[in-house]
Amino acid sequence: MLPNLKPLPIKDRISILFVEYGNIDVLDGAFVVVDKTGIRTQIPVGSICCLMLEPGTRMSHAAVALAAKVGTLLIWVGEGGVRLYSSGQPGGARSDKLLYQAKLALDENARLRIVRKMYEMRFGEPPPAKRSVDQLRGIEGVRVKESYKLLAKRYKVPWKGRNYDVKDWDSGDIANKCISAATACLYGITEAAILAAGYAPAIGFIHTGKPLSFVYDIADIFKFDTVVPLAFKVASEFTKEPDRVIRKECRRIFTEKKILEKLIPTIQDILDAGGIEFTDPVKAVVPVAIPLGERLGDAGHRY
Asked: All domains of the chain, ordered by start, with CATH?
């Protein structure tokens, strides 16, 4: 008898892997991609943070079940990895964490403290005093636009602002294509980390009202130190199929910067800034019938 599969912590994983034009299945106990000629390519799914599934990919029930068991996030994306159609959920199974996150988001003072912490982590300095969340969001927007301009100037890339059409990938200029492809990679691993930590991607603090609001909040902290400069660099060197170059370079920079090791501790530091103590709301209710065994993965992994 083989031992039960257990999720690896996010910090010990490979960041992302893109799959296109193949059938993903579990054959002979292995997670594999089978192309149209029948050739199998094995994927070590348990050591990958998230799989980006592009058009032309089909996935069996057994493969989805195995990905969920080992805590690998599945994201169905469009051409270039930019459009996000759907995603699986390997984590987010901690009701105590979800309730805590919602409590912080609904408390105006706690939310402001968290937004100020995000601002400080992103820009390396405390935000102006006595500013509301909306005011800080406006200040952040101005600084972000200026950062784009400076990077475009440094890499000598034509820049008319952040502008892209999610319905028409080819309509964007080279710089916007590169930025979209690079940020899609960052959003993927960030969503996986948020779910693995047991929190909800939709409950944000700066960004609100979107399915990935908290993903954008966390990813923005790392964006201009990692994928955005990379996107401008690639845009200055390549003109054809830049998204393929971006994917490879994103994996490299995520490893060099140790992003997977930093994501979950960063999430916790940000939420701690809210100043509300985390309490377990389930102590007063009926305990679970079957207690969970020893866990190797992160708090939100289901198995």
From this structure: 10-87 (3.100.10.20), 95-272 (1.20.120.920)
